Amino acid sequence: MCEQRRRLVRFIVTIGCASIVLFSSLAFAFEDSPWVTYRGQQGPGVGKHIVLVSGDEEYRSEEALPMLGKILAKWHGFTCTVLFAIDPMTGEIAPNVRDNIPGLESLDQADLMIIATRFRDLPDEQMEHVVRYLEKGKPVIGFRTATHAFAIPPGKKYSRLSWDSKEPGWEGGFGRLVLGETWIAHHGNHNKESTRGVIVPEMKNHPIVRGCEDIWGPTDVYRVRLPLPGDSQPLVLGAVLAGMSPQDQPVQGEKNNPMMPVAWTKTYTWENGPPGRVFTTTMGAAIDFKSEGLRRLVVNAVYWCLGMEDKIPEKANVEIIGTFEPNYFGFNGYKKGLRPADFRDQN
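The chain above was modelled as a monomer; its predicted structure follows.
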């Protein structure tokens, strides 16, 4: 009887230890997930899922998108999943790794995609989730380098999405066909001439610009072809300023005559799919989002893209949650050693 009792005790201890190891492993796996999700609890966005795709070498989207995800979740109720370029060897956020953004399968159930990637060459199994999303005609918001989101060599399955695609009917790739423009050039003098957002007078009553009195960013204006394609509607023009301060004056001459659009709406159709709403801004470096006006422009655009423009308040809450001191833009300027778990805190 004593021997049976000892065996029972050993069995219980073994099972208990195994359970501890299992649950510890699951907890570690959760903490070390290659993405982060902020759950919306209350607000008009409850029940809507936004996937924010970062991955650029220059403008610190890996810092901007978690900040925006927190705002959209806490103040507006949207559930937001933020994806990152990840070094598969270390699990660390690595913007220079151009061929790995885990979690794109979350687009399969997403209501909105916000994308801020630059020259990505993702494997087919990751790109197929992007394509399936677009085939459904779901809405898209693109920031700055998303005009050249992908750089996929000819001969690959999704090369027609590349920023420099020459395939008939797909010229300019994802940027031109979905967002309204691909990469052309810097219009302002990069890192010497900043951008003042000027609302198009005829669009002053558009719900996306509601409450956006002050839009400024240290990044320069991008060049775009005029007019923009299809039903593109410029909302904000970019005044090229003579310096890197919001108090600087617009430069004289052709750079501001005419001013380039820096934010617009349009619709896209993917082959024979239904039309989807689009908002694009060529502003959008992390440091640009220190501007309350730019944050509000994007939050309003989220509502509009989802067909919820009647829910846009007179002045949407865009208060930053916690601290937001992003690194300045520039190549190899990202914060080393960060993991998605470092952005998990929502308070």
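The helical segments are 2-31, 61-74, 124-135, 173-179, 292-305.
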